[in-house]
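The following block was generated as part of the benchmark described in Methods. Ligand: MF3.
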Amino acid sequence: MSDPAAPTALPGRNDPCWCGSGRKYKRCHAGGERGARGHPARETAPHPQRIAERIKPGRISPTREVPADIPRPPYVDNNGVPPQPRRPVAPQQPDVLARMRRAGRAAREVLEAVGPHVEPGVTTDELDAVVHEHALGLGAYPSPLGYHGFPKSVCTSVNEVICHGIPDDRPLAEGDIVNVDVTLYLDGVHGDTSTMFRVGEVDAEKERLIVATEAALAAGIEAARAGAPLRDIGRAIQGVAEAERLGVVRTFVGHGIGTDFHAEPTVYHYDEPEATLRLEPGMTFTIEPMLNLGSWRHVLWEDGWTAVTADLQPSAQMEHTLLVTEGEPELLTATDATQPPRDRR
Ligand code: MF3
Ligand code: CO
Ligand code: CO
């Protein structure tokens, strides 16, 4: 296949066209088939609105180096594969928690440092450089670099890219939305957090999507209470998405985190009846809902990483790493502005 962005699964005739025009597939790109009124559908149907150009794979810059004095997570020297199998969920030890607070706050600090660099004309590779240098400055290893072969230090997911976008030479354009997902490995533990940035002015639908995604993450966090089943988190998120008629991505999930980047439990962002695990104080995991303006379905590019929406409509994601407590959940990936650290409250 020469065009990795072309959908591998075509929409149904009455579903929205994959090109993002908002028209039914049968009235848009279903070329050669009969149109709605019995006329042959035109190959190039005129579109009712201007369509943002879809994201295409760009050029990936050479690997950025990490000085030898910065400790690497174990998968880096094991072909990207974590040497430990996924371990069962267990409350974290106090010393691990103290380190996770530092790693989490550092990750959020790096994420927030990216914000001022986001503007039209800046490439996602330049954002990768910002994350890489800032991480090293804090003595941290950028966890994505070399994880299962991921070639860069951060994930950047623009418009219809749902997650795991690889930074490249595509300049951001006015009206784009971009998720930046920073994970740092510091003092033997990971902190994982992401948010959406707007490139200039974005349209009302993208704005609605971002606001709903923030509300969905907040609802998921609110549901993460000791004694509650894990299922409550996904149910809360799905409720927010459905009220806004947005799709919730099912394939990509939140995860336990600590000394491992991705650990048990699997955190669903939709109501999953099998998620019966009872939450306990000391559990640490991410919540990272991905909401779509259209279908929840995705298509994977040939690079094996970039997940785009099947209908090419925009997608948004936000992520925090959190700790279950006896009371309200503690955000480990927060800064003083969003949640003062425990010892200073
Ligand atoms: N940060 C992502 C997450 O939230 C994982 C990225 S894995 C990578 O779980 F290899 F793509 F970096
Ligand atoms: Co994560
Ligand atoms: Co992440």
